[in-house]
Amino acid sequence: MEKNLDFRSDTVTLPTPEMRTAIAEAKLGDDVYGEDPTVNELERLAADMLGKEAGLFVTSGTQGNAVSVLAQTSRGDEILLEANSHIYLNEVGGLAVIGSLMPKPIPGNLGWITPEDIRGALRPKNIHYPESTLLCIENTHNTAGGIPLTVEQLKADWDVAQELGLGVHLDGARIFNAAVALKVNVKELSQYADTVQLCLSKGLAAPVGSVVVGTQDLITKARKYRKMLGGGMRQAGVIAAPGIIALTQMVNRLAKDHVNARLLADGLQKLGIKILNHVRTNMVFIDFADLGWNDADWLAACRQLGWKTRARGTGTRLCLHYGIESDDIHTFLDGLSRIVAS
Ligand SMILES: Cc1ncc(COP(=O)(O)O)c(C=O)c1O
After folding, report:
1. End-to-end alpha-carbon separation of the chain, Å?
2. Residue ranges of the chain assigned to CATH 3.90.1150.10
3. What are the residues whose beta carbons fall under 8 Å from the beta carbon of 175, sequence distance 6 or more?
4. How far apart, in Å, are the Cα atoms of 117 and each of 60, 160, 289, 321?
5. Which atom of ligand 1 is nearest to the CA of 199?
6. Are 240 and 42 in contact (CB under 8 A)?
7. Which of 12, 68, 98, 142, when mutated, tests ligand 1's pocket best, judged by the most ligand atoms within 8 Å of its CB?
8. Alpha carbon separation from 33 to 39, 216, 223, 237, 288 (Å, rounded)
């Protein structure tokens, strides 16, 4: 395994040797004609794993969220989403630009919007108001600290969405981290959404892409939006092939990242660094102010130890992923303790 000493994100993962072989040997065709056997296999596999009728291979998580949201809404609708969700904060306002949609951000509790808050946010039918048509959920919730939302939380939101006539889209960029952390079959989580976007290119280590899964009807719509957005790819089997390896070989190893995150958090805490999140999956949020450090100090220490990281003010998010082993964490902590002591 190639070492990848980089805390910035799990998007930095490099493909496994099996993925590189699969890329070279992939059977190919023109996917816009539906003729790339490798893309078709990936889409079928993802749909089956998440218990949905159909799948769609997309270029990125952002594109997957965009086509899912577009497939479930009409121009001018209002969509409900968590105030710190990736779709709201980090997708370039695409829902407003591409979908002409009104976002209604709702502050969550550790990433979860409660049924009461959904009810409270929904506008009544009235000639003055836009139609509220969609609820977006994120699992794991990134900015809340990589928090896995539980089956019960998802069901509670789904039930209220059904009652209120809202569709549900799940941004499951890290849905397998959630399933592994909660020790549930991923279907138990995906059953409470009409569309799910899952990323292949984060902890699962594929180099490119996401899959959107849902009903055949929604996926047909999403496919057309993907084409509109320039995501109709041709011999895309070369990038779908590592995605198949991601889903068949890389899911269970996510548990290692979660153990390593805990190991890192415990070690940093012992050095006097504050842990800001509940460490449940592969993310550790830290504040190093108590060491008297600012971002430049943290960056310099990590650079000295051979790690890439980022920081702003007195804190940062550290991500664990394929390419980082527990030995690397021990070595990092030993080195950091020497720097702190000096
Ligand atoms: C929760 C979440 N959703 C969606 C995305 C977007 O994925 P991509 O970077 O592939 O567009 C990310 C990326 O980090 C994410 O963390």
Report:
1. 33
2. 254-341
3. 50, 139, 140, 186, 189, 190, 196, 198
4. 30, 10, 34, 34
5. 10
6. yes
7. 142
8. 11, 17, 12, 13, 53
pTM equals 0.97
User: Domain 254-341 belongs to what topology?
Assistant: Aspartate Aminotransferase, domain 1 (3.90.1150)
pLDDT at residue 1 tops 90: no
Question: What are the start and end residues of each CATH 3.40.640.10 domain in the chain?
Answer: 15-249
Smallest CA-to-CA distance from 65 within 31, 95, 108 is with 95
CATH code: domain 15-249 is 3.40.640.10
Q: Which of 100, 99, 159 is nearest to 135 (CA)?
A: 159
- Residue closest to 288 by CA, chosen among 306, 261, 311, 263: 311
In short, whether 195's Cβ falls inside 6 Å of ligand 1 is no
Say if ligand 1 is within 6 A of residue 62 CB.
yes
pLDDT tens-place string over residues 265-317: 999 999 999 999 999 999 999 999 999 999 999 999 999 999 999 999 999 99
Strand order of the β-sheet with 274-275 is 274-275, 283-287, 315-319
Closest atom of ligand 1 to 201 CA is 10
Cα distance between residue 336 and residue 302, in whole Å = 8
Cα distances (angstroms) measured from residue 66 to each of 44, 69, 175, 207, 228:
21, 5, 17, 20, 11
Contact 141 CB / ligand 1 (< 6 Å): no
Joined together, the tokens standing for residue 81 give 């989403």
The pLDDT tens digits for 111-155 are 999 999 999 999 899 999 999 999 999 999 999 999 999 999 999
Tell me the percentage of the chain whose pLDDT exceeds 70.
100
Nearest alpha carbon to residue 136 among 198, 211, 64, 85: 85
